[in-house]
Amino acid sequence: TLERLELSLLYFFQYFRKAYIGEQANVSSTNLYQRLNDRVGLSDNVTVMNVIVNKTMQNLKVWCRHEEIVDKSLLLFHELASGYSSSKTLSKLEVVVFALHHHGPAQLPFLTQSGNPRHRTTFYTTLTRILLMDDNGLMEFDNFMAPFVLVLQHLHTFFVSQANTGPGPQREEAKGLLTGVLRDLRGVCIGTANRRAFVAFFDWLYPDYLPMLVTAAELWWNDSSVTTPLLKFVAELVHNKCQRIAFECSSPNGILLFREASKILVAYGQRILTGAPPTYKDKYKGIGICLTLLSRALSGGYVNFGVFSLYGDAALSSALDMVLQLSLCIPVVELMAYPKVMRGYFPLQEILCHNHTAYLCMLDTPVFYQIISNIQHGLKWVNPPHDISVSSDCASALYHLVEFRFRAPKKEVLALQGLQKHLQAHPDMFASLLALLLEAVVYDDCPNQWALSRPMLGLILTNEEAYEVIKGQMCDGAPPDRKSQMSAAFDKLMCGVQVNLESRNRDKFTQNLTAFRTDVKQFLSN
Description:
Blueprint: H1 2-20, H2 29-40, H3 45-62, H4 67-80, H5 84-90, H6 94-101, H7 110-113, H8 118-131, H9 136-139, H10 141-160, H11 169-191, H12 195-205, H13 212-219, H14 224-237, H15 253-275, H16 280-299, H17 306-310, H18 315-328, H19 332-337, H20 339-355, H21 357-361, H22 365-379, H23 388-407, H24 413-425, H25 429-443, H26 449-462, H27 464-477, H28 483-493, H29 503-525
């Protein structure tokens, strides 16, 4: 059939690309192009790429309803643009130059007719990378973004009018336009891989269009077909990958970006918290994206968060409070059952324990204890097929919390008092975590032993009595003829370790722990 023929051509083009185009091209490609020139008049890789890209673009027009052909065509186009030399060549091809200036649904019907909306994001990621291969692309950036302006202006008119108060054809049209343009803009944002490109994109987006997303979150909060691309776009926008978000020292853009993200989180969170059924599609998926969004914003390094409390701005505290409420409304069984939610939750806890420890310590005791309980569940994921990055994030979060307690900074008296109040209500909180970590290191085949060892020294130094109890219990639990060896191994564990958490002392403890684990496993297996 024609479909199989098209897929076969794409399969051939893909392997031809791997062998003869780009940085990984085979050294014998010169002889190949001589043969191609003699047979079909294709003399070099530029003419071959022109044929391949023309065929790819034609597929996106003719086969716009065929899912697999669109997917394979976009993948081929994306991988052609991934190499430096091949993307430079692409940017000079007539068909690509035309696409950079005419890339709407009228020219490429797959944007609206494809069954997979992710194709829009992939396509615009590829186009943006080609455009921004050199500095000349920045000069053309406004022209490239021009097709989006009409859509966003139409949406702005819709939001400021009173026609959006109830359902109707105008509201459905706006919803379709919004979801499409959000996926497109997310692709553009992914393609901005350096500082100059990101600044150009942000200046184009703010303040003209970004604030309207708050209104969109308020209007369609219970429609995941809108909120998912909206939240994913904002999560990409605040993501400081490759250190691309680096505004001038006199620019307030970093603070403005976080403030807009905070408004969207609060607008969505307030409504989803009580108004959505507890299912993955309706509630937990959106919460997972919110967790990732805040993690990226807090770890981006482009906002001085001390400014918010200093000047009475509630953007940070509102975002933290809202996302904390969202995360705690998920039962731990549900949290551990959905990998995407889990991968958003535990990195956020690690960031909060590291950079916002005082905020956590000042929480109510039941809330704080629930966070610690969730961390305890995450620490148990030390063996494959579990994602061991979960236990590593939990161990890192626990390390920062224990370090805060051990160092007891004088400026954080209230936070230390709050932490002490939590420990008075749950005296075994840290002791149970220490026991869990020791048992995991001794009895489990954990591949991330170094990560698990980080909080152990601080737990031992701040819970000496509990450590002695755990040590006695593990010695008593050993076979009768191995108790003396177990006791000797524990004595060696702290040999040469001082009462501090400096890096050299931690390294010494880690070395002792490795030897301890090896000795215990050896005599227990004999």
